[in-house]
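Hi team,

As requested, here is the filled-out complex form for the zinc ion run. I kept the field names the same as last time so the parser does not choke. Let me know if anything looks off before we queue the next batch.

— J.
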Amino acid sequence: MKAIRLIQPGRALELQEVKVPAVGARDVLVRVKAAGVCHSDAHYRAGKSVVRPLPLTLGHEVAGVVERAGAEVAQFKAGDRVCLHYLTSCGECPYCQRGNEQFCASGAMIGKYRDGGYAEFIVMPARSVFRLPDEVPFEQGAILMCSSATSLHALNKARLRAGESVAVFGVGGLGLSAIQLAKVFGAREVFAVDIKPEKLAMAELFGAVPVNAAECEPVAEIGRLTGGRGVDVALELIGLPLTMRQAVRSLAIQGRAALAGITDKTFEVAPYMEVLNKEAEIIGVSDHLAQELPRLLEWARRGALDLSQVITRTLPLQPKAVNEALDGLERFGGEGRMVIVP
Ligand SMILES: [Zn+2]
Ligand SMILES: [Zn+2]
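And here is what came back:
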């Protein structure tokens, strides 16, 4: 089968002809119908995060059709529409038992530590496979498995309740899902903070109040828009010290800032004024949980989460197209999500 693989960090991805993976008793072989091209894939190609063993097929946002199910897999059969939770896990360690399989020591992420979905087929343990409702196109099913799932996890970690207010810092793939999900949670007001007018226009389309940080100081603006209260929940989805600080400073009394954007830099907090005095919380968000996916898929089925406008382009399973898509992401283009359709 064809697979687009990372051979060496810092080099363009290459097309390789590889064997269709073997299917273990508890595995499902999936014919890939859609694989999202994610900003992290650009980091992997550049060597900014570890990918091993090399060469490795990238792609962690995958939806497709079951080609074959292993002997011990009763819940799936050939032809089923499915999407993949991007982590494999043991199911038995204390983390897995508690439903926190993102900390499983023997877990592995597809497209990073085992072959991913930039290929014609992928093999996955059945416990990481989820049924994709007929109403949800494969392209949307694929990207639900990364940015939308992580946005949902961030809102869950922030314990968003109906009637509360939310500020979303960064209106990329994560942000557009977070805005819609916050509405599903019953958020009273959602503020979308970004510096790109076209992203803010999209956020407004989904019912958010746009805050253009290129034209105003967003903390002051959020303060003004909330009558000086601040927001109950702030999500930082960019990974910049500046916006992390802004997220914390925009909190109301007992507000929660959930940080999902990745950076290795530090950011400043004024402990008394910004955290202790308000009993504010700063919460880390890592990946998402398998148990969160069925609810996400149900909302997508009902149309409460609509990603049709988030996907701007589909690509063939061809290295030139994929490398160019990654080049675009590296330049931080305002483009929406791109999905490989083999
Ligand atoms: Zn992703
Ligand atoms: Zn485990």
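Two things worth flagging: The first strand starts at residue 2 and ends at 6. Residues 89-90, 92-93, 95-96, 101, 104, 106 surround zinc ion (ligand 2) (CB under 6 Å).

Thanks,
J.
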